[in-house]
Amino acid sequence: MVEESFSAGPSDQDPDWLYWLNREEVDIMAGRCYTELRQPARAEALLTSAMARYGQESVRENSLYLSWLAEDYVQLGEIEHAAGIATQMAALAAHTKSARTDARLRYLAGQLAPYRGTASVADFFDAYQSAAAPEIPAPRPGD
Question: Is 44 helix (H, G, I), strand (E, B) or coil?
Answer without folding.
Answer: helix
